[in-house]
Write a structure and sequence with these properties.
Layout lengths: L1 H18 L7 E8 L10 H8 L22 E6 L2 E7 L1 H5 L1 H13 L2 E5 L7
Antiparallel strand pairs: 1-3, 1-4, 2-3
Length: 123
């Protein structure tokens, strides 16, 4: 009897999840300038930070030998509005909390500007 009720609950739960709206994950942009307006150095800091987090990938990412050559989709260096920085996807927190803390502490310790949900039309 327990098995039957469990199956019914699982089916009801699947129907509910398919109708429920899921919020889009937030993205942060860590700018390559400090809160007092100075340019952050070294000039390749964004590539170094993204390179350190390159191994954190979604579960459904390709697993071939060459698949890990490149940046993680959760931490990508970019220019936004003429400012060099790193896009950080909030899903990194779910995959590896320590990696998320590392990025956020890096920004805090270096007094970098962090923009939540940046407007991508500034590119």
């Amino acid at each position: 009897m327990l098995h039957c009720n469990t199956m019914r609950w699982a089916a009801d739960n699947r129907r509910f999840r398919s109708r429920a709206r899921v919020a889009e994950p937030k993205r942060l942009f860590i700018e390559g300038r400090t809160r007092d307006g100075r340019t952050f150095r070294p000039s390749d800091w964004a590539e170094r930070l993204a390179g350190a987090l390159a191994s954190f990938r979604p579960d459904d990412a390709p697993r071939s030998a060459g698949a890990f050559i490149g940046y993680s989709p959760f931490c990508v260096p970019r220019y936004l509005g003429g400012v060099k920085g790193v896009f950080v996807d909030e899903r990194l927190r779910e995959i590896e909390l320590m990696a998320w803390d590392f990025v956020m502490n890096f920004a805090r310790d270096n007094e970098l500007v962090v923009v939540e949900d940046p407007a991508l039309d500034r590119t």
